[in-house]
Amino acid sequence: MATEEMEQLVRRDYKEGFVTDIESDTLPPGLDENTIAFISNKKGEPEWMLEWRLEAFRQWQKMKEPSWAHLNYPPIDYQSISYFSAPKRPEDRPQSLDEVDPKLLETYEKLGIPLHERAALAGVAVDAVFDSVSVATTFKKQLAEAGVIFCSISEAIRDYPELVKQYLGTVVPQNDNYFAALNSAVFTDGSFVFVPEGVTCPMELSTYFRINAANTGQFERTLIICESRAQVSYLEGCTAPMRDENQLHAAVVELVALDDAYIKYSTVQNWYPGDEDGKGGIYNFVTKRGECRGARSRISWTQVETGSAITWKYPSCVLRGKDSIGEFYSVAVTNGRQQADTGTKMIHIGEGTRSYIVAKGISAGKSDQSYRGLVKIGPRAKGARNFTQCDSLLIGDKSGAHTFPYQEIGNSTAKVEHEATTSKIGEDQLFYCQSRGITEEDAVSMIVNGFCKDVFQELPMEFAVEAEALLNVTLEGAVG
Amino acid sequence: MSDTQTFLDTLNARSQQCEAEPTWIAARRQAGAARFEAIGFPTRRDEEWKYTDVRSIAQGNFALAESAEFSQAQAAALTLPLDAYRLTFVDGVFSSALSDLDALPDSVQVLPLSKALIDNHEAVGGPLGRLTSVDFSAFAALNTAFMEEGAVVRIAPGTVVEKPILLQFLSRAGTPVMSHPRILVEAGGRSEATLIEHYAGETDATNFTNVVAELMLDRGAILNHYKLQEAPLGDMHVASIHVEQSRDTRYSSYNLNLGGALVRNDLISDLNGQGAETNFLGLFFGQGRQHVDNHTKVNHNAPLTFSNENYKGILDDRAHGVFNGKVYVKRDSQKIEGFQSNQNLLLSDRAHIDAKPELEIYADDVKCSHGTTTGQLDEEAVYALRTRGIDEATARGLLTLAFAGEVLDQVALDAVAERVELAVAGKLPERFNLAGLVEAAVALND
């Protein structure tokens, strides 16, 4: 393959790189109990929430930062991060899109996501998180009619404290891991979704995250609950402006599915990956976990990871309910000096539980990528079934692709399969396409898209289009 | 820490007896002891030992054997019925009575380490410890600290060794003892040989064997390495095997594990020259409360190297199996082919397997894959056999054997293959009897 062209493709600029100049009410860097009290107070939280945060903080102080991942980054100084940043004038926050700061709307315009148009056309309710505070929520009324609660986690803590109390931290406990504990202590915003019994959410729910003010770590907390026979599809998409400082992002996402419930969680992540030398870029250390509590419940994770300097996340499913199903579909693309250590965990506890994992990794440039997964079959998970496929595609001889699947099987009725391959785009494949008049670039694009097809198929329509475009942009000029 | 102290005390007592040894060996021994003292036994918090708890070794109190007495009749029953050059060690102590090196050609040296050290210790000093440093693991450090016996095999360039070289390690019942055999093999350029490590012993033995083997293959050498581990069910067995392959060499490992209460094998091949090829074949059977852990690693350090791995596990009762296989491709090692497969059969609800097949790849022009499956016998296949008049137990037996067959078929030494087949049949007596089964199959064919 033409090396030059590949290099060109790899050397694309970050298209979404710009900083919106909005004054922020930012807390000076540093973390102690006062910081947490400030955040809690700023959010107008009840006493129990503050206690909960402080408890997490105390546990976090006793924990050690994990170092087992196949990643390389300088130590993070948690005291140099500012833990709160909110757009100014929180009192007179816009009540509708028309009142939204035009600069913010401009930001969305630049991203190619005209909020109102998009919401109207696609029928998507958007809870836009702009620097930690939700500034616009649409279609609330329509959702309310269906009985669906979709709001920011801060609102939920104020308006539905009982629900939050009942579910928060039950899937990802405060002391689950270092970053989850940190998040539990300082989370500033995120989404809350509650779909009551028997309700199918009338539209796909979506949150667009943007990291803005420099030096601000983003600690989102998302909680989605589906009661019996309820269904929801949730979309999360991310872009971030270009800057020099590394930004830590340690979100926690918790999903709870009761009997016969179905939660579909899709992510397109395109945060700033740093420049060619790996300078700048986001550290994305996320804890995502869903629990299939009810019988026949189903949780499906789909992710397209193209951004961030470092991605470290394992969306997982705890399959507790009888015959519950966990799914994980992932495409991860790394370029430049990006590093990704990602995968999933499927914990089979209940009888007849099934899980399906498809992970596709593409590493280009000098990037490094690992798939790390766990399939655990407990002694009571009679007839549990897992199929895992993880394939890696290498572009350029300076990239790396690794696979670390863990299988712990304690049940003789379980069937567990794992397949993995690593290869590059075959010269013969390219030749085959080119001999039929397809240009090298198109051929590579076709092959890469074909490689990812199994995952893209799982994405909701709007995201599938976006994902394919993103993939082409990411590898533009590089592949072929 | 007190666990390590028991071993260090035994070591100190021993060191005082061997004052006359060359200084380099004393220095290495000390380095091993220092390293072991510094790191202690691994715990399950160590990623490499995540699934294997070595407390039963660490908390044991093992003496060192003084003699190599073993009943001739019993040794004869345990010995593989093979025409081979044979070195026998009883609880780590060399037994010349049970060894047989008749007609060994001049181009091949097979001798106990103790003798090699007396004859020409400088020749041993260079290669010994070159592949397995004391930093490799606590067990490698411990082995180095205690190293005094083992086997040295040197094959001159171009030599084809007609008969297999058999290293036999026997374990006696009685007071628990430990042994730390050290095996050093230097296969000269374009030489060809078959090496067999065979571990067996008296049924009631409860000893600890901690072997380190270093195998060096010079350009174009071919080495078939069988490790038949049928240690008594009360024995602890830890083995670290390092292979160094230069250009155009071919190494085949047949790692067959049947015995031992706690077994851990580390098998590492370094493919350092173009055209080098390594084949790892493995089979492990577990029953009762046996714990069998196989860690393998293939390092593709040079372009145009090939590896192929196939490990099969069969676990019954409350046995616990571990498979951790890693294929590593160094930066710029292009045109690599590395394949790995691990399949496990769980025969009981309380059997447990932890599998972790890993790929770590830093070059793009490679073809690497791994696959692992865990499951049960195919019920439809069982049914298909039953419709042909085969009773259920026999049908399951046949299918289990067929499962193992993929590895066993490649074992070129009938004596070894038969031993495994018989052992498997013997180990699963309620389920099937191999001898009867084969007869039945033959009868059916007639």
UniProtKB/TrEMBL annotation, chain A:
The record places domain SUF system FeS cluster assembly SufBD N-terminal at 139-200
- Coiled-coil ranges from the UniProt annotation: none
BP GO annotations: iron-sulfur cluster assembly
TM region positions = none
Identify the residues that the record assigns to the SUF system FeS cluster assembly SufBD core domain, covering every copy: 209-451
What Pfam families does its record include? SUFBD_core, SufBD_N
- PANTHER family of this UniProt entry? FES CLUSTER ASSEMBLY PROTEIN SUF, UPF0051 PROTEIN ABCI8, CHLOROPLASTIC-RELATED
The Swiss-Prot or TrEMBL record describes its family as follows:
Belongs to the iron-sulfur cluster assembly SufBD family.
- Protein name listed in UniProt: Iron-regulated ABC transporter membrane component SufB
UniProtKB/TrEMBL annotation, chain B:
Which residues belong to any copy of the SUF system FeS cluster assembly SufBD N-terminal domain? Answer: 4-165
Where would one find coiled-coil regions in this protein? none
Cite the InterPro entries for this sequence. Answer: Fe-S_cluster_assembly_SufBD (IPR055346), SUF_FeS_clus_asmbl_SufBD_core (IPR000825), SUF_FeS_clus_asmbl_SufBD_sf (IPR037284), SUF_FeS_clus_asmbl_SufD (IPR011542), SufBD_N (IPR045595)
Lineage: superkingdom: Bacteria
Domain spans labelled SUF system FeS cluster assembly SufBD core: 177-403
Q: Its Gene Ontology biological processes?
A: iron-sulfur cluster assembly
Q: Which family does it belong to?
A: Belongs to the iron-sulfur cluster assembly SufBD family.
Q: Which PANTHER family match?
A: PROTEIN ABCI7, CHLOROPLASTIC
Protein name (database record): Fe-S cluster assembly protein SufD
